[in-house]
Each structure stands twice: as structure tokens, then as C-alpha cells.
Amino acid sequence: MTKKLLYVSMALLLLTGCDSMITDETDPTDKTIRGDHVSMETLDWIKSYPDDRMAGLITIGEEGSLYTATSLHTGYNSPTMKVFKTSSTGSEIWSKRITLDIGEDTSLSLSFGSDMKVDQKGNLLIVGTSMDIARTKGDDGKTHITYLPQTHKAVFVKLNHEGEKLWEYTYGGGEIESFGKAVERDSDGNYYICGVEVGNDYHKRTFIVKLTADGSEEFVTHYPLGGDSISKNSIIISGGYLYILGNISHTVVDGKLRRQAQEIGIIKATRDGDPIWTKNYEGGNFDFRLAGFVQDHHHNLVIAATRVGIVSNDHDAQMYILKTTPEGKTLWAKTFGAGPSESALDIAVDSKDNIFVSGWTRGAFPGYTNEHARDPFLVKLSADGTILKSAQFAAKEGSSGNGVIVDDTDRVYLSGFGKLEGQNHYSFLIKYK
């Protein structure tokens, strides 16, 4: 499918209510992104949601159903999110607006660095960040919104499988800003919320909050791992231990300047939050903006990040993948780039330990063209880090492949947002065969 044809196809989706599929199930010749020789997989279906900016939050529910979520920023007096439940065939089961009780003059963000999971009982768990706002009337008679500094709080919401809110929890506030990043659940039905705190002195640290199934707080623990509003600090529970992903700072000399670079850090801790070991990786003259990490079927850790040069002559950004053993020993680390810059935003693995990374690029993977707009991409790598396939498709400036997930049949789903000419932001959800 050509770049121009994809524009037309996405536009048709917008015009037809966005519940139709981009391809005809009986026509296998029109199910690829720009041809079989460069496509990730043949497409099963693609959905688009006009005027909603999908955060990229995506997870799998019962019977292969999918949940996706976005925050709604304007036109509401209270912080609101919209949650979609879609069948494995692409049919919408329901979509609901969820209003939170954290205050009327508050905005909810489910953008980069947020998370969504399903627990053992099919409940939906969503982590994001709230921020206070001020509403003022302008000379034009319209209401204008100003985001107030130093008001970020981590927000955790639990919904049942019908989208009904069961309870919500907030953490932080005051002089220390708190960003909600990730959620994990253990076999006893407890939840672990991972996030980043930033103080007035810009000192950063990672926090873990343990909650019971009814939302009662059991403990809060802090770790010397940094991050920011974009990086995806994460948590994995495996073998009775916590693995916590964040940044560790080190000093880089750039001429007469001294800069703080952010390298990759992992802490292994007990389920009670007590640290066992801390490892740091890479560094040099680079920042590593985290996209998250997963465990493969050998319990190895696979980390995705964006590597950004910080010295005066190197500001390129490239996708970076690191694989370690469960005890933190590096197995391999590789940098990939289509050039001139890209950003990794999410990571997943399949049953064969193949690795999938989504994000955006201003370059072009082999077989593609790009006029330096931000194209969404999805890359498939082998367990040893060899690129097997790539998918890159045309979109206007500001587009991104934000979320990727693999189901138990190794079907791959990609969510994200983009722009079409003459349209507001649209959200998309793709299922690959």
C-alpha cells in the first residue's frame, strides 16, 4: 500500500464512522502496509477514532478482547478519561467516559509513561498523572485553561470489565511532583504502583506504592532511580521479586560544561520493597529515555529506550535495546536507527521471545520513504536482537506508534495517534495477522 493510499484509507475510516476495517477479508492483496517485502505482517484490521488522542495505553482482557484508553482534556469540568473495549475481530463492545473524583479544576494525563493492565479477576487497572488547572475567560469570551506548576499527582483507577469505576487512588502533591508510570499485580491480588517524584531542587527518585485489592495502602518505598514526565519507569514482579526500572545520573564533561546524563538503572527488591541489588548500564555521553521493559520466557529482562546524545555535537536520538539475565548480567545491547532521529515508546515479546518495539521516526526503514515527518513504526527483532521485520506508515507531523502488545496466540496489536490533513488528532488501533 502506498503512502498516498494509506492517507486515503485512513480518511475513509474517519468519514465512515471508523468502525469499518481498512481491508476486505476476501482480498489478501490489500492487507499490507506498503507491500509484503517490507510490512511487519499482513493486517487483520485497523480502527480509527477521530478527535480522540489515544495515549497508547493498550492491554488484553478476557477472550482476546482489547482495552484502550485516552484522557480527555477539554470541554469537561472534571478530569475525564475515555476507555474503549474492542473484540478480537475489531468490533467495539463498549466505550465509556470515566470521570474521576480528584477535583474539578484538574486535568488527567494518560500520555507517554502511563500504564494499563488487567488483573486476575478481569478488572482494569490504569495509572496516569493529574495536574491542577486554572480556568479564565478571555476577551474573546472563551474559557482558557492554564496548567499550574508543581501540582502533579500520580493517579490509579480500578474499573471492572464493564468499565464501571470501583475506586481510585492518588499519591503525591504539594511541593514534590509525582508522576504515575506503571502498575503491576501479584498473585495475592495486591497492586504495585510505580512512579517518579521530582522535588523543588529537581532531585528525582522512584517510588513504589503497594495497595491491597480494595485500595488500602500497605507501604510506600523510595529508590535512587530518576526519571521524568516522559520516561517510562516500570516494575515487573517475577519469582517473588520486584524489578524496578529507572534512570541513574552520572556527570558528563562537554567542553567547559558539566552535564548530568541519565543512564539505565535496575533495582531488584523483595516483595516488601527491600533492595537486593542495583545495576546500571551504558552511560557515556548519552541520555536514555526509558520506554519500559518486559521479561521473556527465560526470565531475561528486555529494556527499550531512546538513546540521545547530550554533548554539543551529537543530539541524534536512536532506538536502544538492552537484554540482561534475571540477575542483571548484560547479554547484549544494540542501537538501531532509521535516521535522522526516532523514539522508542513501548516494548513487548511473543512466545518465541521475539521482541516488538513501537515508536516514531523521522527517518525511513529499508523499503520506506519519509520526508522527515514523524511516522509511526513497529519493529520486530529476534531474541538475539536481529531486526526481522519493520512496518512504517505515513502520517502527518506529530504521529506516533505508542503502544504494542502481543496476545497468547502471538497476534500483535499497535495503538497510537496521528494527524490527517484538515482533521484533528485521530487515534488508531491495528491488529496484525
Short description:
This protein has 433 residues and is mainly beta. It has one helix spanning 3-15, and strands spanning 43-50, 57-60, 66-72, 80-86, 92-99, 106-109, 115-118, 124-137, 143-147, 153-159, 165-171, 177-185, 191-198, 204-211, 217-223, 234-238, 241-254, 257-270, 275-281, 286-295, 301-309, 317-324, 330-336, 342-349, 355-361, 375-381, 387-392, 400-406, 412-419, 425-432. The protein has one domain (50-432): Methylamine Dehydrogenase, Chain H (7 Propeller).
Describe this structure in words.
There is one protein chain. The protein is mostly beta strands. It has one helix spanning about 5-15; strands at about 45-50, 55-60, 65-70, 80-85, 90-100, 105-110, 115-120, 125-135, 145, 155-160, 165-170, 175-185, 190-200, 205-210, 215-225, 235-240, 240-255, 255-270, 275-280, 285-295, 300-310, 315-325, 330-335, 340-350, 355-360, 375-380, 385-390, 400-405, 410-420, 425-430. It has a single domain, classed as YVTN repeat-like/Quinoprotein amine dehydrogenase (Methylamine Dehydrogenase, Chain H). The strands form 7 sheets. Strands 6, 7, 8, 9, 10 and 11 form a 6-stranded antiparallel β-sheet that branches. Strands 1-30-29-28 form a 4-stranded antiparallel β-sheet, covered by helices on one side. It starts with a helix and ends with a strand.
